[in-house]
């Protein structure tokens, strides 16, 4: 289990090394082409050091035709999240809108947003709250106040703005493909009061109709299930092999799991939980029914 930047650095290094091999260059030859010492290329490829966006661009230019346009964009985005604070990664061009909130957001949250923005798909299990990508403004406000009690209202407003800005991935081109399984408790917990919950539930029923969203509810009648160990998110990415990562949130930190055995275990757990959940249409009907009774 590692923190986000360390995982990203190692993955980025593996992909850069694979592209160098495909280009037929040795690490020394690549270093000479970009005007570096060979040890810098080695440190980047082994994930031992951060890498600036400009460094990634220089290497990709050196590797030439083996790098597709889509690979280049994703590797540059991956480099931003791999860099961590103080390396210039946040200045990478592209969909890095969260740079404007760097004084407010912890680095781990920015890591999470960068993963979400670059992912092809996300699979998530939630036990307590509606996933951030599906929250209404007032629900997001109520969750933020409850989780971060005593926060000044301007900061609450800014965090809600971030939550809503994240939702743009569902309407991007191509959009993030989201598969979410919500415990029934998520629908019945009165966060923000009856009016806020009613609007949130109606929003869930509406967003569930989007072709890129698969929303299912795990009813109380299922009893005990694998998800009881805690919520998780699995991100998958386009065009880069073995880049999937599991994110586990804790009170003071997030953990990123990317070992093959961890990914297989969480992927299997998600499939099992999804199989026990109500089908999408039945889930939508239950959501609408609870909204009507709220």
Tell me the layout of helices and strands:
Layout: H1 4-23, H2 27-34, H3 38-45, H4 53-63, H5 69-83, H6 107-118, E1 121-126, H7 137-147, H8 153-166, E2 177-183, H9 184-188, H10 194-207, E3 213-218, E4 232-236, E5 245-249, E6 254-257, H11 260-276, H12 280-293
Parallel strand pairs: 1-2, 2-3
Antiparallel strand pairs: 1-4, 4-5, 5-6
Helix pairs in contact: 1-4, 1-5, 2-3, 2-4, 4-5, 5-6, 7-8, 10-12
The overall pLDDT, averaged over residues, is: 85
H and E string: HHHHHHEHHEHHEEEEHH
**What is the number of beta strands?**
6
The percentage helix is 40-55%
Into which percentage range does the β-strand content fall?
5-15%
Separation of termini?
Answer: 41 Å
Supply the helix-strand structural class: alpha/beta
Low-pLDDT runs: 84-95
Read across the widest sheet, the strand sequence of neighbours is 3-2-1-4-5-6
Q: DSSP helix count? A: 12
Shape: elongated
Rg? 21 Å
The biggest beta sheet, please? 6 strands, mixed
List descriptors:
294 residues; alpha/beta; six-stranded mixed beta sheet; 12 helices; 6 strands; 51% helix; 11% strand; elongated
What's the short story on this structure?
It contains twelve helices and six strands. The protein has helices at residues 4-23, 27-34, 38-45, 53-63, 69-83, 107-118, 137-147, 153-166, 184-188, 194-207, 260-276, 280-293; strands at residues 121-126, 177-183, 213-218, 232-236, 245-249, 254-257.
């Amino acid at each position: 289990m590692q923190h986000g930047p360390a995982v990203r650095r190692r993955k980025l290094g593996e992909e850069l090394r694979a592209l160098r091999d495909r280009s037929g260059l040795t690490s020394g030859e690549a270093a000479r082409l970009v005007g570096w010492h060979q040890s810098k290329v080695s440190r980047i490829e082994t994930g031992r050091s951060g890498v600036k966006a400009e460094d990634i661009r220089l290497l990709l230019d050196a590797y030439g035709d083996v790098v597709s346009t889509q690979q280049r964009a994703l590797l540059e985005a991956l480099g931003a999240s791999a860099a961590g604070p103080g390396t210039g990664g946040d200045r990478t061009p592209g969909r890095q809108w969260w740079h404007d909130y760097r004084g407010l957001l912890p680095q781990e949250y920015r890591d999470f947003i960068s993963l979400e923005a670059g992912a092809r798909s996300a699979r998530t299990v939630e036990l307590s709250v509606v996933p951030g990508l599906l929250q209404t403004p007032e629900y997001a406000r109520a969750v933020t106040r409850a989780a971060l009690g005593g926060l000044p209202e301007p900061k609450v407003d800014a965090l809600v703005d971030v939550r809503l800005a994240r939702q743009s991935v569902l309407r991007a081109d191509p959009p993030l493909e989201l598969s979410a399984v919500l415990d029934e408790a998520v629908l019945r917990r009165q966060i923000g009061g009856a009016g806020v919950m009613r609007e949130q539930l109606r929003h869930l029923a509406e967003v569930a109709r989007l072709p890129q969203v698969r929303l299912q509810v795990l009813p109380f009648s299922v009893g005990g299930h694998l998800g009881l160990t805690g919520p998780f998110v699995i991100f998958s990415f386009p065009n880069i092999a073995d880049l999937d990562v599991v994110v586990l949130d804790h009170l003071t930190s997030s953990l990123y799991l990317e070992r093959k055995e961890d990914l297989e275990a969480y992927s299997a757990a998600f499939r099992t939980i999804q199989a026990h959940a109500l089908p999408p249409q039945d889930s939508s009907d239950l959501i609408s029914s609870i909204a009507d009774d709220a």
